[in-house]
């Protein structure tokens, strides 16, 4: 084994896990956009060839050479779409791709329309993520309120006067003990009829 190949063999592998998840989401979604645009171009060319074949009755498709990828989005639009992709949580990356493929299959767009569909799918996903985050926030607030009210209820129940553990003497206690009840003291003087 040569020294150069030994160094190559012992190089630390480039680990995907070292990359930022947001960057991976952006890259994955933009690759999907690019692939869908290529597919749309390919289908567009096939439709044009079919139309020519029907119109002329002859298939010249094998003579025509097309560029591999002729349509591309502008740099400004690319930056906007990449910025929108950063708002997509990694757990939503797969569902966004599936939804995008579903929309493309449904509409069969031309290459220049694919980025518009992609944008609408990203907006839809971002709104759904926002709604779910708000719902989680409300649930957390609700749980916090419930914990607070429960602790207040517990405190109130502890501070209640228990009738069985009371220093207040009742007639029933005296009867149970077999003793004579103490005379009641009236707060108001008794009014007697004096004749």
UniProtKB/TrEMBL annotation:
It comes from the Eukaryota. It holds the Pfam family RD3. Transmembrane segments: none annotated. GO terms for biological process: retina development in camera-type eye. InterPro entries: RD3 (IPR028092). PANTHER family: PROTEIN RD3, RENTINAL DEGENERATION 3-LIKE. This is RD3 protein. It comes from Leucopsar rothschildi (Bali myna).
């Amino acid at each position: 084994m040569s020294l150069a190949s030994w160094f190559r063999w012992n190089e630390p592998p480039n680990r995907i896990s070292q990359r930022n998840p947001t960057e991976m989401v952006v890259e994955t979604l933009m690759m999907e956009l690019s692939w869908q645009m290529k597919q749309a171009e390919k289908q567009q060319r096939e439709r044009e060839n079919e139309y020519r074949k029907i119109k002329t009755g002859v298939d010249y498709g094998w003579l025509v050479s097309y560029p591999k990828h002729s349509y591309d989005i502008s740099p400004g639009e690319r930056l906007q779409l990449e910025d929108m992709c950063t708002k997509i949580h990694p757990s939503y990356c797969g569902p966004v791709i599936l939804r995008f493929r579903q929309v493309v299959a449904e509409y069969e767009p031309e290459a220049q329309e694919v980025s518009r569909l992609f944008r609408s799918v990203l907006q839809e996903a971002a709104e759904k993520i926002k709604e779910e985050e708000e719902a989680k926030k409300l649930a957390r607030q609700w749980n916090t309120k419930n914990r607070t009210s429960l602790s207040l209820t517990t405190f109130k129940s502890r501070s209640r006067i228990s009738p069985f553990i009371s220093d207040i003497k009742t007639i029933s206690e005296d009867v149970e003990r077999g003793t004579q009840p103490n005379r009641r003291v009236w707060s108001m003087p008794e009014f007697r009829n004096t004749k």
